[in-house]
Amino acid sequence: MKKKKNDGKIATENNPLFSAFKKKLKAVKKPEKKPKSIPRDRTKIIAIGIWSMIATLIFFAFLSVLLSINTRSVVNDIERNQVKNSKQKEEVSIVAGERFLSEFITEYINVKNENDAIEQRHKKLMSYLATEKDELEQETLFSISGAQGDRVLNDFVLYNVKKGDEDSLFQYKVNYQNVVKVKKKEHKFDKQALLNIPVKHKGDQFAVSGTPYLSEIYDLKGSDIVNEKEDREEYDGDQTAAIKEFLGTFFRKYAEETKDEMSYVMKKPETLNGHLVFGDVENIQIYKKGDGFEVSSIAVFKEKETNLPVKERFTLSIVKNSGQYYVNQLKHQ
Known about the structure:
With 333 residues, the chain is of the alpha+beta class. Helix content is 39%, strand content 30%. The strands form two sheets. Strands 1, 2, 3, 4 and 5 form a five-stranded antiparallel sheet that branches. The protein has a four-stranded antiparallel sheet with strand order 6-7-8-9, with helices on one face. The chain starts with a helix and ends with a strand.
């Protein structure tokens, strides 16, 4: 039995098919096992990216704030310039308006009671009016039918300008005469009144927008206006006498010397340069202010030829440098 088994095994090994199959098995290589790759740690890269984005956002936010501030500053400058220009334009408009109305007032006040003169006056006055839809009503504005004498303008001066949203009221103080002939004898009556002229303007162009009218002259003096003063305690220390002595010396130099000479005692030199002579200093009030003093006083100057006194109130801000008083600021009041 054993011999048969061995014979079978030998027979199998010697079998050509088996040998060929065995060779093929040896030819087939087992795939090598590759080590599993460990994923890289990307948290640092992600963190760097996030912080970079945050820093970029902060930078642009800061930049936008700076740009906004700069833009606001530019806008404020433009607005200030516009306000300044509008104020300057307003002042120019008053001057131009006064020039425009000077011719109108002459035509309006002067009345010659003759048909041709009345007709010419009417035509000239109509040319000053703003255009309106109701032209028939305008035609009657300067009608003087029924007049029994002449009116003669002596002089006029601008008294006030009251500004509205669209119109301005120019007020002139006028002196004129009413001239009436009675039995070939001429009688003159002096008159003084306030001539009110409503005016529309566009830039430097003007037009009379309504009927001029006369009214009583009112007082421009303000009886209820109070010049408020700060309630402060006056300085009365060891420098009082020296400051008063300095004021006398300063105003004498101010009256007589040049700007170059005044530069030794003033930050912004100014002088009368001999136009007046110094007289005295009155009503001296001294106040302590920081490291220096604020001094209010009335300086009395005089005309050289007539000795006529000229008084002016000054406020000086003075400091003491190297034992000498020096004027940092001078205000005229």
